[in-house]
Give the backbone structure.
Amino acid sequence: MRKRKSIKERKEEVFLVISQIIAEKGLSEVSTVEVAKRLGVSQPAIYKYFKNKDEMIVYFLEHLKGQLEEVLKKASKGKNTREKLKLIYKEHFKLIEKTKILPRIIFSDVVYLGNPAKKEVLKDAILTYKKGIIDILKEGIEKGEVVNIDPEIGARLFIGSIIATTLTWMLKDMEFKLSEQVDRLMENWDKMLFR
């Protein structure tokens, strides 16, 4: 007799299935029908966990926010600003390679239209992530490790480098590993940011 999956286990499966759908077809193609089909359950089974597609996407975005917070948590273990930023690159790129979804979500109008809860959750995730990077840069400035820059602009440039690298990766059909870009990116930050 098979053991029933917990709500947490089932929702994690839903997150991974939604990730697959987004990676293959885009966020607009996510539906309770498609998720149920890929999980091998009936569509009504999905409604045990989510009222509708919007609620499923909000959950997905909240889960994604948690993963970005985990990236910041791992980065906080770095012994200096440079190591912390390098850890963010490494962990963020691992997350993208695993799910292949972050760039598609950030630029998807499905998140911005309709249910405002979706937009709010994504906005909160991005602003929380950016604040974590700002805090790392502020600390680096205070310790004299980083040149005196505007931490807000520095965080935007850092996040922009993640987005641009990932976009290039996707346009080149993922033919290189994102993790291989970390040292190249850090070499350039060494020239611009670190003392």
Remarks:
- The mean pLDDT is 88.
- The two ends are 62 Å apart (CA to CA).
